[in-house]
Specification:
Helix content is about 15%, strand content about 40%. The protein is of the alpha+beta class. The protein has a single domain, classed as Acetamidase/Formamidase-like domains (Jelly Rolls, Sandwich). The strands form 2 sheets. The chain has an 18-stranded mixed beta sheet that branches. The chain has a two-stranded antiparallel ribbon with strand order 3-12. Helix 4 packs across helix 5.
Length: about 350
């Protein structure tokens, strides 16, 4: 994970190309059910639950919240949405099931060495029930909290707010924490908790509606999956958990042939973004910074020396999350500084 692949990737698309891609393609629907999800892992040998073409859109409904988990916390069965009982049918444990990944989706034409563009066209809260928790020996302050605690929360779907504590009401900012493709076959099955070269559990709240994620393709079809709905999360996710809930939204998937990236990267309407993941936060900083340096050199035509100084003057380094094993950093450079 410590070496970056050579970058030959144009992250910026023309306005006309974007408009053309958004207007074309089929629209699919994918709802969480026992036959459309896999729980807690990525694997290149998984059979796809949906096959799509480049440019297609997919409306998705992801579920977070095993009914048994909420029942154990004293929530009456009649207050637990029926959609959760349907999605978690047959699940025997009582874990919340944050990484109930919908997919994988096979994208026709995607091959190793390509890049998969995932546009988050929309994402919103879906069901009103949510939860937050921490666990012993986890989080940023494990020595302060050597025990477990869970809290059930309720989302006002009309006002789009959540009351975290009495009198503490916060607007929701929904996003999927876990978006990824299958890892290289030689990695085998990997757990969905730590983010990796395939993306996965990045827990990046800047990847909300209007953002675009770019993922390197490692296996034919890419095998895209997503889950881990968050109604709200701060950078760092310090206690281990965001406000975990079920989300609905729409994505558009586009294949870029022969355009290779080594790590996931993204863009928002206002910023270019690169990411780094490593158990050592310092190494994650290096990866995210070097990725942005390479991007500026390749796509903006600056020398490495000038690009390095530009980053020091304009780039923000953000601790995406510090609790998932592989810690995350994302680097942000404003688009507006480039006049051509």
């Amino acid at each position: 994970m410590k070496r970056c692949a050579a970058l030959v990737f144009a992250i910026v698309l023309s306005v006309s190309a974007r408009a053309g891609a958004q207007s074309g393609g089929k629209i699919h629907e994918l709802k969480s059910s026992p036959t459309t999800v896999h729980r807690g892992f990525y694997d290149a040998t998984l059979k796809p639950v949906l096959t799509i073409d480049s440019g297609d859109r997919v409306k998705v409904w992801t579920t977070t919240g095993n009914p048994k988990y909420f029942e154990n916390l004293g929530v009456p069965k009649e207050k637990i949405p029926a959609e959760l009982y349907a999605a978690f049918e047959g699940v025997q444990d009582t874990e919340r099931g944050d990484h109930t990944l919908i997919g994988p989706m096979y994208v026709n034409g995607a091959e190793p060495g390509d890049t998969l563009e995932v546009r988050i066209l929309s994402v919103d809260v879906w069901l009103p029930i949510a939860a937050q928790s921490f666990r012993p020996h986890r989080g940023v302050l494990p020595e302060d909290f050597p025990y477990a605690k869970d809290k059930v929360l309720w989302i006002d779907l009309n006002k789009k707010t959540v009351e975290l504590d009495p009198g503490v009401v916060v607007p929701v900012k929904p996003f999927w924490g876990d978006i990824g493709v299958a890892p290289p076959r030689e990695m085998g099955r990997i757990i969905a908790g730590p983010p990796n070269v395939n993306g996965g559990n990045m827990d990046n709240h800047d990847l909300g509606a209007g953002s675009t994620l770019y993922l390197p393709v490692h296996v034919p079809g890419a095998l895209l999956s997503l889950s881990d709905g968050h109604a709200l999360q701060g950078d760092g996710e310090v206690c281990l958990s965001a406000v975990e809930t079920s989300l609905k939204g729409e994505i558009q998937v586009i294949v870029h042939k022969g355009k290779r990236i080594g790590w996931p990267r993204a863009e928002t309407p206002t910023h270019y973004m690169t990411m780094g993941f490593d158990e050592d936060l310092n190494q994650a900083v290096k990866i995210a910074t070097r990725e942005m340096l390479n991007f500026i050199v390749e796509e903006k035509g600056l020398s490495r020396e000038d690009a390095y100084m530009l980053l020091s003057a304009t780039m923000d380094l953000v601790v995406t999350q510090a609790v998932d094993g592989s810690k995350g950093i994302h680097a942000l450079v404003p688009k507006a500084i480039f006049q051509k």
